[in-house]
Design brief:
12 helices, alpha/beta, 13% strand, 5 strands, five-stranded mixed sheet, 230 residues
């Protein structure tokens, strides 16, 4: 990619202006080759050149919590490859993003814009970076079997803990007095209000339900309790 100094040498007889933002390509014609662009400017005796360098930043590649959240797996499972995420982010922090990845040069002729571009996606080509979503999906695929096994173990543990909780509820005399839906809702509220451990059996650490809500669980426990009285 041409530097500002190189542009100044090539277009030494032109007025040159660096602009702050790139142009809207929907209202312009892009020339495929730089030599064609240069020939075009000479043929039409154009004397003013506009150019713009585009830059990436660490924020474009750093894997943050919002991206990790989209993986839709538990924090415990994320710990499997958490060190790889930290290593990747640390490497990105060392890169020099003052190096542009795109140079756009354009001219205006009779009210219309003509431009040419030079690309150097050095962060992909030299450092093999990925956008955060792609990087995380690669990690997820690399650790697929481990992730599935971990999530299965956690699911089994969760179901076993629910069975224990249900047995405690069925044995609770206070629960025996919940003879209508309103009383059972109150019992559910009291049980889960300040009991993070019980809540964790039904709600993912992201906040959504695993499967059945506590209300359904309580009603199933009630049916089982009533069935035991027959």
């Amino acid at each position: 990619m041409k530097s500002k100094e190189e542009l100044q040498k090539i277009f030494k007889h032109f007025d040159m202006y660096e602009i702050e933002s790139s142009l809207d390509e929907t209202t312009a014609l892009r020339l495929k080759y730089f030599d064609d662009f240069l020939h075009f400017t000479q043929k039409h005796k154009i004397d003013s050149i506009f150019y713009h360098y585009s830059y990436a930043s660490t924020e474009d590649f750093i894997v943050d919590n919002s991206e990790i959240y989209q993986l839709d797996i538990s924090e415990t499972t994320i710990a499997i490859f958490e060190n790889k995420i930290h290593t990747y982010n640390n490497m990105i922090e060392t890169l020099d993003f003052s190096r542009p990845y795109l140079l756009t040069i354009y001219v205006i002729l009779e009210g219309f814009i003509y431009f040419v571009e030079e690309e150097d996606y050095w962060f992909f080509n030299e450092y093999k970076l990925d956008i955060p979503k792609d990087f995380l999906m690669k990690l997820k695929n690399q650790h697929f079997e481990e992730i599935i096994g971990n999530e299965k173990n956690m699911s089994d543990e969760r179901l076993a803990a629910r069975e224990l909780l249900k047995a405690q509820i069925i044995a609770d005399e206070a629960f025996h007095k919940c003879t209508n839906a309103a009383l059972r809702r109150e019992y559910e509220y009291q049980l889960f209000q300040n009991n993070a451990q019980a809540k964790a059996l039904f709600y993912h650490d992201r906040g959504y339900l695993y499967d059945i809500p506590p209300k359904t669980f309580i009603e199933k426990a009630w049916k089982e309790y009533k069935g035991s009285l027959v």
